[in-house]
Design a protein that fits this description.
The protein has 235 residues and is an all-alpha fold. It is built from eleven helices and three strands; from the N terminus they run ααβαααααββαααα.
Length: 235
């Protein structure tokens, strides 16, 4: 084999090692440092500028989990991932249930866990390609291996989109109700969790029938999973 070809072959063989090292370093750093932005925030800002919306600005203001009303993380868990405390990143039963639900032609429902959503929101792009799903699964494995559950939950409620360009609990609380995230009421938290499947379509501040109905269901589910006792499982 010519020397040049061997040289390029060796480089190609190092690519998987570099990929594992870089992605693991990304996740390890964010175990301790709060993310200044996310892939989804950057994409939304670029989208706005691409459409000529030069005045558009992403609203994002980090708050530690202790500075956020417990009703919000509880509402998000109740709405999106009730097995969060016990699964290892993937909830196969929830995925099967979502596929069955969608096959019946009902309102589309996802089966992603909070860990998967954090992986997607922080590191990846929107879309449904197999490449993106594969990367999402890889980042999910890294996140579950390197972060405690409370850190996953803390990052999720800070980078989730609760309205067009409004990311995280503090930005949502200030934008909608002129208050800090620590003062969110249970009903407000439930409405924020209710819009998560489509935050640009639904409004937590001006909830329509769907958001009102789903928020009421979320509040019932919060009680069903044990309220703040659920959060103590994550400590």
């Amino acid at each position: 084999m010519p020397r040049r070809r061997r040289h390029w072959l060796r480089r190609l063989l190092w690519l998987p090692v570099l990929f594992v090292g870089i992605t693991a370093l990304q996740v390890a750093v964010l175990r301790f440092l709060d993310p200044p932005t996310s892939a989804f925030m950057l994409a939304r800002q670029a989208e706005a500028w691409g459409q000529g919306e030069w005045g558009f600005r992403v609203v994002y203001d980090w708050r530690d989990l202790e500075a956020i009303a417990p009703s919000l993380p509880l509402s998000v868990i109740a709405a999106e991932d009730q097995n969060f405390a016990t699964h290892s990143g993937f909830d196969l039963a929830a995925i099967e249930k979502a596929l069955d639900h969608n096959a019946k032609g009902k309102r589309l429902r996802g089966g992603s866990t909070l860990s998967q959503q954090v992986a997607k929101n922080l590191f990846l792009w929107q879309g449904r390609s197999w490449l993106r799903k594969g990367l999402e699964a890889w980042y999910t494995l890294l996140i579950e291996a390197m972060w405690p559950k409370r850190r996953i939950l803390e990052i999720h409620v800070n980078v989730a989109e609760f309205g067009d360009g409004i990311y995280g609990a503090q930005a949502a609380a200030r934008s909608y109700w002129r208050k800090d995230a620590s003062r969110l009421a249970a009903g407000e938290s439930a409405r924020l969790a209710a819009v998560l499947p489509a935050p640009r379509r639904y409004s937590a501040a001006r909830p329509g029938p769907y958001v009102q109905k789903r928020a009421a269901w979320i509040q019932r589910q919060v009680r069903q999973i044990g309220g703040q006792d659920y959060l103590r499982q994550l400590e």
